[in-house]
Amino acid sequence: MESYFYWDSMSPNGGETLYKSKDLSKIQEAITKRFKDYAGFVKEFSDRAGGHFGSGWVWLSVNKDGNLVLTDGHDAFNPIGDGVIPILVIDVWEHAYYVDQRNDRGAYIKNFIGLINWSKVCTRYCAALKKVQDANKKK
Predict the structure, then answer these.
(1) DSSP state letters, 47-79
(2) Rg (Cα) of the chain, in Å, rounded?
(3) Model's pTM, two decimal places?
(4) d(CA 60, CA 70)
(5) Torsion, Cα of 99, 12, 49, 68 (10° steps)
(6) d(C-alpha 4, C-alpha 7), whole Å
(7) Cα 116–chain centre separation
(8) N or C: where does the chain have the smaller number of CB atoms within 10 Å of the terminal CB?
(9) Which pLDDT tens digit goes with each residue over 73-129?
């Protein structure tokens, strides 16, 4: 799952320019609510990925209240077991960046953020939000 999400989360036309597209208002609103703005997201996501000790993953997910959360974990961790729905992941295993950036995880994170396919993330966010809303209606 992690690998699919990882590769499917990137686009050569991704990053901040794609994020500012008008058709992505749902994820923009959620990012603004949780992180104040795009820059706040970039900082918190980068800090979490850069500060993760060792190998693993950092996930942007939707929790049971419909809010965005960041989680990280080692090895084959994914946040589904914690009751959240993932919408974006960055691989912070050294093999993901060593060939191109050597041991410069910060450069890798910056490059990854510039490739985020916000259209895909928005689609995942809307689907996750609907799933959360449907589950909450049943309660």
Answers:
(1) HHHHH--SSEEEEEEE-TTS-EEEEEEETT--G
(2) 15
(3) 0.88
(4) 5
(5) -160
(6) 6
(7) 8
(8) C
(9) 887 778 888 899 999 999 886 655 555 656 777 888 998 999 999 999 999 999 999
